[in-house]
Design goal:
One of its GO terms (cellular component) is nucleolus. With 730 residues, the chain is mainly alpha-helical. Among the domains are: 155 residues; 132 residues; 210 residues.
Amino acid sequence: EEEQEEEFLESLPTDMMDEDDLQQMTTMARKASFITRDLSSCGPVHGGKKRSSDVVRSYEKVPRKIAKMQEKEVIHLLPIKDKSGVIPQSMERVVEKQPEPEEEEDDDADKPDEEESEGASSCYVGLTPEQREQLRNQKLNEKKHSIANLASAIVSDPMNNMKCVKELRGMLMEADPSVAVSVRKLVMVSLMEIFKDIAPTYRIRPLTAEEKSVKVKKETKQLREFEEGLVSQYKFYLEDLEQTIKDWKQKKRKRSQAVGLQSYLSLAEVAVRCLSELLLALPHFNFHNNIVVILVPLMNDPTRTVSDMCCDAFKKLFQQDKGGVASLATVRVISGLVKSLNYNVRPEVLQTLLSLRIKEVEMKKDLEASAPKKRFMTNKDKKKNLSRMQRKWKKAEEKLEKELLEAEATESKEKKIKLHTETLNIVFLVYFRILKKAQKSILLPVVLEGLANFAHLINLEFFDDLLNVLQNLIQSGDLTNRECLHCIQTVFTILSGQGDALNIDPLNFYSQLYRILLRLHAGTPDYDIIIVLRCLDAMLTRRRKQVSLQRAMAFVKRLSVLSLHVLHNSSVGILAANRATMHSFPKCDFLLDNEIQGSGFYLPELNEPEHCNAQNTALWELHLLQRHYHSVVRRFAIHLSRGAPSEGTASLSVDLSRRSPLELFEDYSLKNMAFNPPVAPPGSKKKDHFVVGETLLDGELQKLVSRVLSLVEDTQPDFAATYTHIRAQD
């Protein structure tokens, strides 16, 4: 054996090894422990027995290799039937399991932004700020050209270029930090305009299995593929917009990256604007309810710009929605939002409900405008162009078409009324819940305004309870002037409409309005005067048979006093309301006379119109208003002081007499920061020459003054002569 080892060692190449290394390798080869020893351990070669912990540690260092079991998938086949019965058949198929990503790949995937930012920052190393800006503009222009090319290709031929939408949507993931924000904004807006152009005017429904199995023409198959691709890309685009908004909200909550917060906010604003445009432009298309669900919670967002965009979008949606389907879906989501947040929402959320088009008159107009107008042939055309048999068939056909049109119009009208009724029920449910549970909420003014707006549609079954609630609110003293006016308007709108048959005298509400009138002045908003004019029309003009003369004269007197303390457009509206009251109650001309009618004195501070003795006063305010700076106010004051005649020199022109107080208020307002008509500037107070005092007197007084002055000159002593006489004596 020793000879064999020596022969083996001599056969090794020794030209690349030193003698010391060769000797060491020879000694190690003679020891068996060199082969079996764990090279990772640092203990001695023959160190004795190891401890149990060292043994466990050595096992832990050995890499684990788990035997991979092949997963099998069971496939069920068609069963076999024999004499014993049905025998199920199945087979197994091996499923190759994909290798799991290593930990290093996961660590790298967690930080893509850092690598991108490092790669982007390395491009700008050594560049001046001007060169960086120039490079950024160059990149941005290239992106703009690519976006424009893709968009033009899609719009020109959407059937064959649907893949370009996917490519354009991929640019929403722009990774270059220098142009990422700008490119994403441009892509979002471009896709919005593209979908507005290529989306059809109908809703695309998914095909059933039977429809897919049927063979169709090539054009039909191409149309189906286009519609399927359009719906899928539109869905992905909406998901991208939603994710952009979620990223902004998440960053806002974490507060971890304050530097990027402004960029996320600007991206979210563009995303909200795109969703708002699609909400208005495509109310008939797919995923419209999904857009509503995304935008409704943003109406209550603390960011003012985002919430205002959403509120304005829903106001426009309510105004342009003639069918009522979109309005119903939106109102349902708003009701759920208000209830889930326990009525802690911004007033602007409920303010949008005032834009709902739920009025019977507008519905009839919409039906007449939308109903197709069919032109039928006259008898002359029939005799000229048709034979006898053809005329007979044509007559029967036209009769059938008329019946179909009438049936279609009736069905659409009933459907619209049903949708509007359901929508209004949800709105009133929200209002009544707030009146019951959150009377001290900031939503109360909006609720009262909404009740006043839709009061003519309230069911009379709720009127008694609503009247008690409103009366308690006014008597509590916690409401502002506008809130009280909304309560009064709600009550009298109901009484002048469906509640006209009810035998109720709401004297307390008359006293409340009479008391509020003295609180208004030129510093209050004009909207308060608008509510007052609406209330006066419902309380005095429409209910003139239920109002006493004493009450009417008290209101005319107090309104005349109010006209002195408000702006000129408010004065015109109030004087026009007084004119309508004087026409409804002709005996109000007692106020134009100085004579006393009955006993007692006028009590202007008393807030009870029935007992203030208004018949014993006069409208002296009209004399002051005849010197008003506005010409229309002067004309109304002269007209009322002469008893509001319909003919003669003191009568009003047709333009003024035919307009309502609200129309006059709007026409002469200061919306454009200019008077209508222009007001002449005041004359200059500077005098060109001094005026002698006696020229201000009449002729007789001037003669008397000159006579007195002449007597004074004759009797005036000569002090100079007296002085010379005294010096001479000395």
